[in-house]
C-alpha cells in the first residue's frame, strides 16, 4: 500500500508540473525548445522573459501570452524564434503587451509569429519589431490606447474572411514604420470594406509610414490605408500602395487611401497602383472635412474592367467640405477627379501619361530609363540623392550601372546639373575639380553604348564647361541619354532628355 501511494504521489507531481507550464521569467534557450504553452500564460509585472535564437514556442488553440512585464525575443536571421499553434490547423490568440505605466519596451528581433487571431497587441505599451514576420487572420499588429510601435524591416500579413480585418490597426496610438511590408487579403466577402491593410484612428503626433510596401486585395475592394481623425499627425512618404478588387461587385466602392476627418500635409513620393474588374475605385478618397495634399507621386491603374470607374482624386460631395490638392503628380488610366470645386492642382505640374514602372504586375514600381517621371518633381522640395530634381513615386531612379574598371583612390569632383534638360538643341554642364586629374566625359545611349566622347584628357583644378551636342557635330535622335563623367575611375552620371 505504501508503495502504491508513493507511486501515485509521484505521478500527481509529474502531472502538476506539466500543467504548470514553463517558467515565465528568466531565459528560454534552444535546450528548452520546443516550449509548450497549453493554457494562456503571463509574464508577471516587474519580470522579464528573454527568448533566444532557435526556440520554438507552441501555443494551444485560443490561448494567448500576456506580457505584464517585459518580453525580449532575440532570434537571428538563420535561426528565428518561432511562435505557432500547438495543434496544426488551429489558431491561437496572440501576444498581448500591457504597459501598466512601466517604462519598458518589449522587443521582437527575428521573430516569426504565425497562426494567430491577433498577432501582436499593445495596450498602452511600447514594442520594437525588427526583421520579423507576423501572420494572422484578423490583425497582425494592434496598437491601442497610448501605445507606441517601432517597426523596422518586417512583414505583417493577414488572410481573412471578415470585412473588418486590418493588417495594422493603430487606435489612439503612435506607429513608426520604416521599410516594412503590410499585406491584406480578404476572401469570400461581398460587404463594403470596413478595414484596411493599415487603419489609423486618432493617431498620436509623430506617426510615420516611410519606405513601406502596402497591398490590399479583396472581392469587395479593401482599402489599403484608412486614416480617420488624424489631424496632421501622420507622415506618409516614399511608400508603394497596391489595391486589387477581383470580385466584380459594381456597387461597392474602395480606395487606395481613404481619409476622413484628417488633415494631411505630408503625403509625398507615393506610388499608388490600382486594379479593378468592376465598380468604382479611387486613388485618394476624402470625406467628412478631410484635407489632403499629394506631391511628387504616381497614381496609375492597370488590368481594369470595362465597367469600372476610376478616379485619382475623389471628394465626397455628400459630406462636410473636404479637399484634395495635387502638385507634381503623374496619373495614368484614370480620370483625374470627380469634377468638384474642392479638387485643386498646381497648373503645369500634372502628367497624364504611363509612368513606365518596371513591372507593376509583380509590384516592381521602380522607373524605367524612359520614364517621364524621372526628374519631374517639385523644384522647391528635397532633391534626390544625386542632387537632381525629385523623381515621382516611391523609388528613386538609379540610372545605368556602368562598371568601374579602375577602383584606385580618386580625387573628388562635382558635376553640375545639365541645363536646360530636357532640351531640343543643346544642353550645358560643368565639372569642378579639386586638383589636376585625368577626366573622361562621354554620352551613352539607353543600351549603354557611347555615342559621343566629349573629353579624355588631363584637366587643371577649377571649373570646366561643356556643351552637348557640340555645334557642328552629328545630329542626335530624340530620346534618353546618359551623361557620364569619370575622373581617375570615380564615375558620376546624369540623365539627359533630347526632344525635337
Compile the SSE list and pairings.
Layout: H1 2-20, E1 26-28, E2 35-37, E3 41-43, E4 48-52, E5 56-59, E6 64-67, E7 70-74, E8 81-85, E9 94-98, E10 105-109, E11 111-123, E12 126-130, E13 133-144, E14 148-152, E15 155-160, E16 166-171, E17 174-178, E18 181-186, E19 196-201, E20 207-210, E21 213-218, E22 223-228, E23 234-245, E24 254-260, E25 263-276, E26 278-287, E27 291-301, E28 307-315, E29 323-332, E30 335-337, E31 343-345, E32 350-351, E33 357-359, E34 364-367, E35 413-415, E36 427-433, E37 437-444, E38 450-459, E39 462-468, E40 479-487, E41 490-498
Parallel strand pairs: 1-4, 2-5, 3-6, 4-7, 5-8, 6-9, 7-10, 8-11, 9-11, 10-12, 11-13, 12-14, 13-15, 13-16, 14-17, 15-18, 16-19, 17-20, 18-21, 19-22, 20-23, 21-23, 22-24, 23-25, 24-26, 25-27, 26-28, 27-29, 28-30, 29-31, 29-32
Antiparallel strand pairs: 33-34, 35-36, 36-39, 37-38, 37-40, 40-41
Task: Provide a brief overview of the structure.
With 500 residues, the protein is mainly β. Helix content is 4%, strand content 53%.
Report the portion of residues in β strands. over 45%
Please give the domain count.
Answer: 2
- Supply Rg: 28 Å
Form type: globular
Roughly what is the average pLDDT, rounded to an integer?
Answer: 85
Tell me roughly what share of residues is in helical segments.
under 10%
| Straight-line distance between termini | 106 Å
Amino acid at each position: 500500500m505504501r508503495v502504491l501511494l508513493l507511486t501515485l504521489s509521484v505521478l500527481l507531481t509529474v502531472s502538476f508540473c506539466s500543467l504548470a507550464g514553463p517558467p515565465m521569467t528568466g531565459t528560454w534557450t534552444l535546450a528548452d525548445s520546443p516550449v509548450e504553452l497549453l493554457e494562456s500564460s503571463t509574464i508577471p509585472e516587474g519580470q522579464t522573459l528573454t527568448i533566444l535564437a532557435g526556440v520554438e514556442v507552441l501555443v494551444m488553440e485560443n490561448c494567448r501570452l500576456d506580457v505584464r512585464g517585459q518580453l525580449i525575443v532575440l532570434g537571428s536571421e538563420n535561426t528565428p524564434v518561432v511562435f505557432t499553434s500547438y495543434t496544426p490547423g488551429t489558431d491561437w490568440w496572440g501576444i498581448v503587451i500591457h504597459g501598466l505605466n512601466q517604462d519598458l519596451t518589449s522587443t521582437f528581433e527575428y521573430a516569426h509569429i504565425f497562426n494567430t487571431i491577433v498577432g501582436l497587441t499593445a495596450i498602452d505599451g511600447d514594442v520594437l519589431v525588427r526583421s520579423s514576420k507576423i501572420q494572422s487572420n484578423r490583425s497582425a499588429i494592434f496598437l491601442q490606447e497610448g501605445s507606441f510601435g517601432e517597426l523596422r524591416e518586417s512583414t505583417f500579413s493577414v488572410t481573412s474572411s471578415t470585412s473588418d480585418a486590418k493588417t495594422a490597426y493603430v487606435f489612439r496610438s503612435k506607429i513608426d514604420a520604416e521599410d516594412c511590408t503590410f499585406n491584406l487579403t480578404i476572401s469570400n466577402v461581398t460587404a463594403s470594406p470596413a478595414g484596411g491593410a493599415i487603419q489609423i484612428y486618432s493617431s498620436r503626433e509623430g506617426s510615420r509610414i516611410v519606405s513601406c510596401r502596402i497591398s490590399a486585395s479583396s472581392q469587395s475592394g479593401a482599402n489599403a490605408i484608412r486614416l480617420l481623425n488624424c489631424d496632421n499627425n501622420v507622415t506618409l512618404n516614399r511608400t508603394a500602395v497596391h489595391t486589387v478588387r477581383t470580385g466584380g461587385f459594381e456597387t461597392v466602392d474602395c480606395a487606395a487611401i481613404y481619409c476622413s476627418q484628417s488633415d494631411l500635409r505630408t503625403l509625398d513620393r507615393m506610388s499608388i497602383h490600382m486594379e479593378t474588374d468592376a465598380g468604382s475605385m479611387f486613388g485618394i478618397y476624402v470625406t467628412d472635412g478631410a484635407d489632403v495634399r499629394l506631391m511628387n507621386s504616381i497614381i496609375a491603374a492597370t488590368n481594369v474592367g470595362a465597367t469600372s470607374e476610376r478616379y485619382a482624386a475623389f471628394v465626397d460631395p455628400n459630406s462636410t467640405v473636404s479637399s484634395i490638392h495635387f502638385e507634381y503628380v503623374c496619373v495614368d488610366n484614370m480620370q483625374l477627379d470627380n469634377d468638384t470645386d474642392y479638387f485643386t492642382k498646381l497648373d503645369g505640374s500634372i502628367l497624364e501619361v504611363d509612368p513606365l514602372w518596371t513591372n507593376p504586375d509583380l509590384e516592381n514600381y521602380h522607373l524605367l530609363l524612359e520614364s517621364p517621371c524621372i526628374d519631374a518633381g517639385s523644384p522647391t522640395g528635397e532633391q534626390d540623392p544625386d542632387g537632381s530634381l525629385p523623381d515621382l513615386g516611391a523609388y528613386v531612379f538609379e540610372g545605368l550601372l556602368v562598371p568601374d574598371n579602375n577602383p584606385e583612390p580618386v580625387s573628388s569632383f562635382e558635376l553640375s546639373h545639365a541645363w536646360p534638360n530636357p532640351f531640343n538643341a543643346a544642353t550645358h554642364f560643368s565639372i569642378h575639380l579639386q586638383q589636376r586629374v585625368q577626366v573622361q566625359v562621354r554620352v551613352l545611349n539607353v543600351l549603354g553604348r557611347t555615342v559621343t566622347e566629349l573629353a579624355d584628357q588631363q584637366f587643371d583644378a577649377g571649373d570646366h564647361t561643356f556643351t552637348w551636342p557640340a555645334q557642328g557635330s552629328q545630329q542626335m535622335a530624340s530620346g534618353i541619354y546618359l551623361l557620364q563623367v569619370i575622373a581617375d575611375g570615380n564615375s558620376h552620371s546624369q540623365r539627359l532628355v533630347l526632344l525635337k
